[in-house]
Amino acid sequence: MKALLLSDLKQLEVVDFEAPTPGPHDLLVQVRACGICGSDVHGYDGGSGRRIPPLVMGHEAAGVVAEVGSEVTGFRPGDAVTFDSTISCGTCHFCRRGQINLCENRQVLGVSCGDYRRHGAFAEYVTVPQHVSYKLPEGLPFEHAAMIEAVSVAVHAVGRTPVRLGDTAVVVGCGMIGLLTIQAARLAGCTRVVAVDLDATRLERAKALGADVTLNAKETDVPQAVRDLTEGRGADVAFEVVGAPPTVQSAIDSVRKGGSITLVGNLAPKVEFPLQSVVTRELSLFGTCASSGEYPACIDLLASGAIRVADLITATAPLEEGADWFARLYDGEPGAMKVILDPTR
What we know:
The chain is of the alpha/beta class.
């Protein structure tokens, strides 16, 4: 089969790669769409330590079942499917508690971090266990289904947060996950959503996707502006979707006393923490990682149109254009959001 191989740092090439063989409980999936994730772009220069070459990246994908393992039940060739990017073991302490994203033995598709190497879906075929696979409803485009992984991250983050009907939410960072978080927060009951970013184009997208107020952090004192909108109190909840010191500080400063901040972004491994502010204002901080069983709900949200992703897809391209798109995204292509690669093109 052909695959887009990270052969060295920042070196991608389409190669003839050995097709995977499904195990007894696996599906062999013909990949019809696989999104380029920001973590792939940040990782392919070696900076994250989670994309060690040689590696076939890609974990946001959907396709058609080509073959099933000998002990697979509930799936058959021809089924349209998507699958979780986190391969959980199903037997450890956390899996038994339903916290599959915290699995002690987890692997992630398209990741090589030293502890394991699991080739991903920038290829014609990929194998995935049946227990992380989900059938797609008829009519849901594959390129939309490939966005379910990103949608599940946003939905899980909002689910971790104590949102009450009528709350005001601040979303700091309007990249892909931030824009999806805006939509998920609205669905969870937030009646006012404030979007924050440095990029005017992203703020326009945020407005189109449900944000009531947009604040450009280059031009506005964000915490003060949020207080002005909330009779001096601050927002009930904030979602930090960047993972950098200034944005974490902004999210914490924007909530009211007793408010909650959910940390979604993890761009920087460490940030300075305003301990006194958190303690004296009795704030609650939540970490959130990937997703944990939200895929069926996310499939329904996309199929019903409750969460919209079509406007977030910048381009759909064949594998042969993958290296060029990676370079463009790495260099900060203006206006680019999600690029989907289709190995069948």
